[in-house]
Fold this sequence. Notes:
With 288 residues, this protein is of the alpha/beta class.
Amino acid sequence: MNATLRNGNCIPFVGFGTFKIRSKEDVQKTIKAALDVGYRLIDTASVYRNEAEIGQCLKEYVPSNNLERSDIFITSKLGPKDQGEGTCFAAFHRSLSNLDCQYLDLYLIHWPGTQGRKPDDPDQGELRVGSWRDLIKLQKEGKVKNIGVSNFLQHHIQELIDKTGVCPDVIQTEHHPHCVQSELIEFCRRTGIFYQAYSSLGTTTSNNPILTDPVVTEVSQKLGKSVPQVLLKWAVQQGIGVLPKSCNPQHIQENIDIFSFQIPEEEMLKLNSLNREKHYCWNPKDIV
C-alpha cells in the first residue's frame, strides 16, 4: 500500500530498514527475503556503511525476478559530517555511485546538526540550509525524485522553508507509543510533509520498554497479533509510514503483514495514552 506525497509521487507505507545490517552476506540474505515477501522500499544511509552492498544486491536480484528499477523505492541519507552546500552535493553522488543507480527515490538530511560542531554553534542553520539548497538542485536535475529531512524539529523545517521556499516531501523521525511528537505531526499534516517513523519497535536492547509495555502486550493478545505487528499497524493506521528491520525471515514477513486487520478505536486510544515523549534514539532538541 502506498501513500501519495505532496508532489504527487508515491511512497510505500511499509519499507525495509537496514541499520546495522552490514556484511555482504547479511545484506543479500535480508534484502532478498524482504523483496520476496513484498517490500519495495529499501532504506539506507551513508552512515550505515552498507550502500555498496545493497546496490550490488539490488543490481543482481531485481532483473532476475522480473522487477525493474522503477519497482524499487530507494532511500539514502546525508551523513552529519557532510553537511553544507557543495559538501552535500558531493556526498549525494557518492551514495548514488555506491548504490549503482541513475537516481534515488528519496534523499534525506539525516541530522539537523553538523558533526564536529557544538549543538549551539550559530553556523548550524546556515550549514543545513546549504545542504537543503543542494537537495533542491539535485531534485531539479532529476537525480533524486523526493527530498526530505530526518530527526528535524518544527523550527528546523520552518527555517528551510523560509530560506528557500521549498518544503520537504518527507520527514523520517523516531516514533512509537512512548514518543509521539504531536505538534510536529500536526505541523507536517498542515504543510503536506509525509511523516515516516523509524524505531517503531523501540530500542534494540534486550530490555525493550516498548515490546514489554503491558498495554501493548494486552492489545497484542486481544487481537491475536504479534507485538511488532500491533506497533507497526498503530502507526500506519494513523497515516504514518514505518521502516521495520530484521534479519529473521519470519519477522520480515510478519512486519509487512499488517494490512489485513484494523486496531479498534478503543485499543488505539489505549496505545495513544502511552506517550511520555521518550526518545530511545537520537534527540535533536539541543540543535539550534
